[in-house]
């Protein structure tokens, strides 16, 4: 099975301009994501997909392979689709460029044991919340799955609501996922639905059309960088490390 890793690294962000180049302990954030991705033994190659010449130059400067992609993409998945049109693989594993602490041992957990490259397959990672404040933070996506790990709903709101019981651990989205080419083709050809527009979450491209997404609980540490303030959290974790339990209500 030919598997490649792809790191989307968008340059033009109004909230955090050139976020992939934000410095973490002396290195650009995308360097850390690339380092961990290169440690995944089953990846035949790792590519950084960007729309920025500046990001391209920096990444090539530390030896990364770079694919230039369109500035018109609204989502990382659409950028991944473009990569799939240029590089053939059985499985495309996307590691978001704002996930600097995710490790190789966790990245591989989204990869199925066997997969036919012609099949429709999508999986993502999730992990347990460790900070109760994060559960009510709308920047964190809450994941609800059935007993088979198939996603039922994703929301920025705390779901499910604990009306009938309190014994529940909340899970949050981790920016690592695996896609076959046919899944990416479906994504590209399918228009955005109402819920996707409301939640601003492109996983609903599949969910609203009854296409299964598997969510695997990697039980991993993740600090997704959304604002410059998050850099402080990442650096503190990298220097000190931490071990905290899941949040159960």
List keywords for this structure.
single chain, 249 residues, alpha/beta, Spore Coat Polysaccharide Biosynthesis Protein SpsA, Chain A, 9-stranded mixed beta sheet, two-stranded antiparallel sheet, 11 strands, disordered C terminus
Which SSEs are present, and which pair or pack?
Layout: E1 3-9, E2 23-24, E3 27-28, H1 29-38, E4 43-50, H2 53-61, E5 65-68, H3 76-84, E6 91-95, H4 104-107, E7 122-128, H5 132-135, E8 142-145, E9 151-155, E10 171-179, H6 181-189, H7 194-199, H8 204-207, E11 214-217, H9 228-240
Parallel strand pairs: 1-4, 1-6, 4-5, 7-11
Antiparallel strand pairs: 2-3, 6-10, 7-10, 8-9, 8-10
Helix pairs in contact: 3-6
Tell me about the biggest sheet? 9 strands, mixed
| Percentage of residues in strands | 15-25%
Q: Any idea what the shape is?
A: globular
CATH superfamily: Spore Coat Polysaccharide Biosynthesis Protein SpsA, Chain A
- Structural class by SSE content: alpha/beta
Highest-level CATH class: Alpha Beta
Gyration radius, rounded: 17 Å
| Overall strand count | 11
Low-confidence stretches: 243-249
Distance between the termini: 41 Å
Task: Write up what this structure looks like.
With 249 residues, this protein is an alpha/beta fold. The chain has one domain (3-240): Spore Coat Polysaccharide Biosynthesis Protein SpsA, Chain A, CATH 3.90.550. Mean pLDDT is 91; it is low at 243-249. The strands form 2 sheets. Strands 1, 4, 5, 6, 7, 8, 9, 10 and 11 form a 9-stranded mixed β-sheet that branches. The protein is built from 9 helices and 11 strands. Helix 2 links the parallel strand 4 (43-50) and strand 5. The protein has helices at residues 29-38, 53-61, 76-84, 104-107, 132-135, 181-189, 194-199, 204-207, 228-240; strands spanning 3-9, 23-24, 27-28, 43-50, 65-68, 91-95, 122-128, 142-145, 151-155, 171-179, 214-217. The protein starts with a strand and ends in a 9-residue tail after the last helix. Helix 3 crosses helix 6 (181-189).
């Amino acid at each position: 099975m030919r598997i490649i890793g792809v790191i989307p690294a968008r340059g033009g962000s109004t909230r955090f301009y050139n976020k992939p180049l934000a410095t973490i302990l002396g290195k650009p954030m995308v360097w850390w994501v690339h380092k961990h991705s290169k440690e995944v033994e089953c990846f035949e190659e790792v590519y950084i997909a960007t729309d920025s010449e500046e990001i391209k130059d920096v990444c090539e400067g530390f030896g990364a392979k770079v694919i230039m992609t369109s500035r018109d993409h609204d989502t990382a998945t659409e950028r991944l689709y473009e990569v799939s049109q240029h590089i053939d693989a059985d499985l495309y594993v996307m590691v978001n460029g704002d996930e600097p602490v995710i490790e190789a041992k966790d990245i591989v957990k989204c990869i199925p044991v066997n997969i036919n490259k012609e099949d429709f397959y999508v999986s993502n990672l999730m992990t347990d919340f460790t900070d109760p404040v994060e559960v009510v933070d709308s920047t964190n996506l809450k994941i609800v799955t059935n007993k088979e790990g198939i996603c039922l709903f994703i929301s920025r709101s705390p779901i499910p609501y604990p009306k009938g019981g309190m014994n529940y651990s909340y899970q949050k989205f981790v920016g690592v996922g695996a896609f076959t080419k046919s899944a990416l083709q479906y994504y590209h050809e399918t228009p955005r639905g109402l819920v996707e527009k409301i939640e601003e979450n492109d996983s609903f491209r599949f969910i609203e059309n009854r296409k299964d997404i598997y969510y695997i609980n990697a039980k991993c540490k993740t600090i997704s960088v959304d604002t410059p303030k998050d850099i402080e959290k990442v650096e503190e974790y990298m220097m000190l490390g931490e071990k905290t339990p899941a949040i159960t209500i």
